[in-house]
Amino acid sequence: MKQAVSDIATVDFDKIRKDFPILSQELNGHPLVYLDNAASSQIPVQVAERLDHYHRYEHSNVHRGIHTLSQKATDAFEEARRKVHSFINAASEDEIIYTTGTTDSINLVANSFGLTNFSEGDEVILSEMEHHANIVPWQMVAEKTGAVIKVIPVTDSGDLDMKAYKQLLSPKTKMVAVIHVSNALGTVNPVKEIVDLAHENGSAVLIDGAQAVPHQKVDVQEIGADFYAFSAHKMCGPTGFGVLYGRKELLDMMPPYRGGGDMIDKVTFEKTTYNVTPFKFEAGTPPIAASIGFSSALDYLENIGMKAIEDRENELVSYLVERLSEIGGLKLVGESENRASLASFVFDHIHASDVGTLLDKQGVAIRTGHHCAQPILRRFNVPATSRASLSFYNTKEDIDRLVDGINYVKSFFE
Ligand code: C6P
């Protein structure tokens, strides 16, 4: 699949917004402003129609049936794998493993790679800004293997302390697992540099790309990570589907994570042998409809062009930060110069959940809380933040409505 080289100036984002009927409704008596895209983005009609067509006319199980319908479903399912491989520029489609999402992808690596490669005293480096999905699986495996978790600290601006990272790397480091774009701060991390340093040290690297792939062109070969994880529902696709990219030579050496149908070669009660990569990691009936819906979402994004999407969102996020900075008493949490598509903020005397509830009453949907990233909120001494997160279909008017809404919240508490 060739990337469309669309320029932001030539893309009609007002027209694109009409592909999302959910955005034209009123909620609580106001036109909806949807600024919770980091949690889940919305689905365009093209993807909804593709899913509907599959369910009406193509639904069947894959890799099993001799019949034509099963063959059609299998073709569409495997076509999705080719599309994902091309979207992130993996070296081969065998490097694309279907999972249920980023969380599942990371658990797969932690259990399959971690349980076989970690011993007592080995080290896993995470960062202070990780999502719980990239903390807890490693802790669970560390408990079983005796490995030790080390943490890269975050600076006051919300950037990784790269000097501290270099000092943490040692011959004991078996894995470096780091977030690409922080879902709590918006920071874009220098993943290529992180990977290069880890590889010079002989350590494997996993990048949690859940908040990166929806917003910028990601080239896994250029980044060079051994594993890269992301979710479909944050990039105009369905829930319950995600991807683990892994370098083939590593995947080939790793044991299966789950057992069951489809992941086997031969089964006897004495001994079972396994299918090849990637199928040995995909036990049971996979998320067939979701993979086909995701394939359609990738077509949709490619049609707009990831470069145009990134430029559009950079423009919007600059405007978001500029407008939020005008609000007296509002403090941004995370002020990196390398920011993507979201902003988190707090007030000294207004709790984030009050901000979220009162905005919702005005039709503005944001997320409040710890964003499944409690350690980084603790680092900034806040129990919760309000977070506005953007997609390419948002507008400056959406941001103005958010700011008007926040000013109303402030006046409510004065
Ligand atoms: N973040 C949010 O920020 P799943 O639920 O498996 O699709 O994705 C988990 C996940 C992993 N890493 C990062 C960086 C993430 O942002 C997320 C999901 C959502 O609102 C829900 S906590």
Descriptors:
binds ligand C6P; single chain; Aspartate Aminotransferase, domain 2; alpha/beta; Aspartate Aminotransferase, domain 1; four-stranded antiparallel sheet; 39% helix; 414 residues
Describe the structure.
The chain has helices at 13-17, 45-58, 68-87, 102-117, 136-145, 162-168, 191-200, 220-223, 248-253, 288-304, 306-325, 352-361, 374-379, 396-413, and strands spanning 26-27, 30-31, 33-34, 96-99, 123-127, 148-152, 173-179, 204-208, 227-231, 242-246, 264-267, 272-274, 330-332, 342-347, 364-365, 367-369, 385-389. With 414 residues, it is an alpha/beta fold. It has 2 domains: 8-44 and 305-412, Aspartate Aminotransferase, domain 1 (Alpha-Beta Complex), CATH 3.90.1150; 49-302, Aspartate Aminotransferase, domain 2, CATH 3.40.640. Strands 4-10-9-8-7-5-6 form a 7-stranded mixed β-sheet, sandwiched between helices. A 4-stranded antiparallel β-sheet has the order 13-14-17-16, covered by helices on one side. It has a two-stranded antiparallel ribbon with strand order 1-2. Strand 5, helix 5 (136-145) and strand 6 (148-152) form a beta-alpha-beta unit. Helix 2 (45-58) runs antiparallel to helix 10, helix 3 (68-87) crosses helix 10 and helix 4 packs parallel to helix 5 (136-145). It is globular and about 75 Å long. The termini are far apart. The mean pLDDT is 96. The structure holds ligand C6P. Ligand C6P is lined by residues 38-39, 101-103, 131, 133, 179, 183, 208, 210-211, 231, 242, 367, 371-372.
